[in-house]
Structure formats: C-alpha cells, structure tokens
Amino acid sequence: MSENQLSGKAREALRHIRNSVMHTGKVLSVRDLMGLMEYKSPRSALLLMQELEQGGFLRKRLDGSYSMLKDIRNSEDSVQTINVPLVGTVTCGAPILAQENIEAMIPVSTALAKPGSKYFMLRAKGDSMNEAGINDRDLILVRQQNTAENGQTVVALIDDEATVKEFNRNGNFVTLTPRSSNKKHQPIIVTDELKVQGLVIATIPIPE
Questions:
Q1: Does the pTM of the predicted model rise above 0.70?
Q2: In the 8-state DSSP scheme, what is residue 148?
Q3: What is each CA distance from 191 to 153, 156, 170, 172, 204, in whole angstroms?
Q4: Between 20 and 30 A from 108 (CA), which of 17, 34, 144, 203?
Q5: Strand ranges (E), 20-134
Q6: Burial of 23 (0-12, 13-18, 19+ CB in 10 A)
Q7: Which residues of 118-141 are buried (b: 16+ CB within 10 A; e: fewer)?
Q8: What is the pLDDT of residue 77?
Q9: Residue positions annotated with a catalytic role
Q10: Rounded Cα distance, 48 and 166, in Å
C-alpha cells in the first residue's frame, strides 16, 4: 500500500510517527499519538496504528509496541522531512527550546537535518554575520550541541539572548567573532563557561 492510499488521519499519524523516529529513534506510543492527534481516547489512535500496520508501514512487536518498517525511512519516491522548531528571542533565562519560544514547526529535509541529532531554527537579526552568508531575516538551521571547534559558527547564549558568531577558544577564554562588512560589530570575549547551544548547519535565505 502507498501513503496515498491511507486515510487522511492515517497519513497525519504517519507524519507524527516519522518525526518521532527521526528525532528520537522510537515509534510513538498509542498514548503519545493520542495526544498529538488531540484525541480524547486511545482507541482512536490505536485504530490508526492498526491501519498503518495493515498497510505495511508498521510492524507490531511481541511486547505490543510498534516498529517502523525500513522502507518508510529509506523511501526513494519522496523527500523525507522532519519538523524542526523555529524559536524566537530567548529572554529571562528561559531555555532556548522552551515552549514559549517556539513560533512554528518547519519541515526540513533529512538530507540537512540528519537523523540521530536534534535541531532547531532561528531567525537571524542584523548583519553581524553577513560575510558568512547569514543575512537579516534568514532562517538558520542549528544542530543542538554544547561544544564547538575553533572556526565553527555557533549559537550561544549571552545575557539570556541568542547570538550567532564564529567560535574561537584560547585557554580559558572564548572569542565570539562577527564576520561582517559592518565594522561596528566587534569580537566578544567571554570565559570558557559560555553556553553553546548548537552548531549552524545551514542558512535558508528568505526572499524580500
């Protein structure tokens, strides 16, 4: 059975399940799917799981949980995507992926957001990294990690706000260097206790 032969609700359930597999390596439980589909009873979610099983998309294990068949993640007839959260300005010490910071979920190809890691997106502000190809309003795809190598472009928290700069460590100090044609932007020197939030993987220009 192809995805197009599934019911609309089953296709929606499959998208949720695929996102879970890509993000965590695990298929959603019936109750997790119930919550995402906003059902009041687990039976409705279970029926969708059974439809996906009958269609050859899921396999039921002996313990009652489900696994996803490999051909779903390796399908060559469609582009596979996962939903990546677009987060806004980080303030008041809130974690960068706090629920109140999430503006939208953006589908991103797994060729960019590779399975096995977690990702988020930020909207660039200003021109401090324009010579690195990051312009005002561009979307930045970030792989979550708390370490970086010299010369890599990172997202870091300074005074509870996210900044995008080139990372360079020298002893107990880290320099966050702008790459800009605007000379008003100067390097920021901080201690090695700087909170790196992730590594910039790709920049997605936004048309005017």
A1: no
A2: -
A3: 17, 12, 10, 6, 31
A4: 34
A5: 58-60, 66-68, 81-87, 102-109, 119-123
A6: middle
A7: bbbbbebebbbbbebebeeebbbb
A8: 43
A9: 128, 165
A10: 46
Q: What is the dihedral of CA 134, 122, 88, 176, to 10 degrees?
A: -60
- Residue linked to tokens 């696994």: 67
The H or E element that residue 73 is part of is helix 70-73
Pure H helices in 84-183: none
Dump pLDDT digits (tens) for 115-138. 889 999 888 888 999 999 988 888
Q: Which two tokens stand for residue 152?
A: 């890599």
Tell me the one-letter amino acid at 165: K
Specify the pairing of strand 153-158 against strand 58-60. unpaired
The residues pairing with 164 across neighbouring beta strands, listed in sequence order, are 155
3 state DSSP class of 126: coil
CB-CB contact of 55 with 11 (8 Å): no
* DSSP label of 113: S
Residues of the chain with pLDDT under 70: 22-25, 69-79, 88-100, 207-208
Domains recognised in the chain with CATH numbers: 3-73 (1.10.10.10), 84-204 (2.10.109.10)
pLDDT at 148: 94
pLDDT at residue 70 in the model = 47
- What's the confidence (pLDDT) of residue 136? 87
* Alpha carbons 180 and 191: distance in angstroms, whole number: 23
